[in-house]
Amino acid sequence: ASAEQKARIIPALAEGSLRLAFAHQERQARYDLEDVATTARKTADGFVLDGVKTVVLNADAAQILVVSARTSGERRDASGISLFLVPTDAPGLTLKTYPTQDGGRASDVTLANVTLPADALLGTLDAGLPVITQVVDAGIAAIAAEAVGLMEALQALTVDYLKTRKQFGTTIGSFQALQHKAVDMLVMLEQARSMELYATMMAQSDDAAERGPAISAAKVQVNRAARFVGQQAVQLHGGIGMTMEYLGAHYFRRLAMIELLFGDTAHHLRRVTEAGGLIDAA
């Protein structure tokens, strides 16, 4: 960002008077960050943007969108992607907003001949992908930490339920089979916690080749743990575990969304495999 952009945006962000949203995902791209079909055509006075972004979190609450668009190259080229600051009230920009399963909000953003001045460019022309990758990796580390907190709360809630719910004249937590399931939940939680700490550490690395596989490995473990802990919590609670009146159901919904956010398990397994794993062959 330029000095002028930093002076204009950072203080307003810090005081809470300005909110931004990241508009990068596109329908055809799935989780591939380099797949960008939205275009930014250079003009004498700036740029004209055309395209559609999907599932932009909290776009309806933002005043400015950080939009990725292709300024050169083909749709799936790693180079040629640039970032732009786009006001949400810009002519030609429309939002289709809807609730998400975890109680949040997201929007599909349509850009139709959105005209921007030259100073709307954020960073270097055609060099946006490394920034996008680093930001998404940091986002994965953040939601991994959130997932661990959710799993910890859900596991504690489940154990407390096992200690109080009675059936056949005794608390169901006295049944050894259910104790085993609760222990399995704890094991998966602690494995996820370990990988989340690893992701937090690696998110600070400027080496994308080292950082990327590490973040993906953490996302795989956190995803697997989130699904296991969430499903076991529902099984051990019974029907109440899926009711909207119960806090555990909301934890489970958020874990299910985190599993898909910034890439599902299969995507990140592929990313680790393509990198040759986490440990270099001696």
Report on this model:
- The longest helix is centred in the middle third of the chain and has 36 residues, at 129-164.
- Helix 2 (129-164) runs antiparallel to helix 5 (247-260), helix 4 packs antiparallel against helix 5 and helix 4 runs antiparallel to helix 6 (265-274).
- This protein has 282 residues and is of the alpha+beta class.
- The chain has a four-stranded mixed β-sheet, with no helix packed on it. A four-stranded antiparallel β-sheet has the order 2-3-7-6, with no helix packed on it.
- A hairpin with a 2-residue loop joins strand 9 and strand 10.
- 34% of the residues are buried.
- The chain has helices spanning 3-15, 129-164, 176-202, 208-237, 247-260, 265-274; strands at 20-23, 39-42, 46-57, 64-70, 81-87, 93-99, 105-117, 121-122, 166-167, 170-171.
Quick tags:
Butyryl-CoA Dehydrogenase, subunit A, domain 2, 282 residues, four-stranded antiparallel β-sheet, four-stranded mixed β-sheet, 21% strand, alpha+beta, 2 domains, Butyryl-CoA Dehydrogenase, subunit A, domain 3
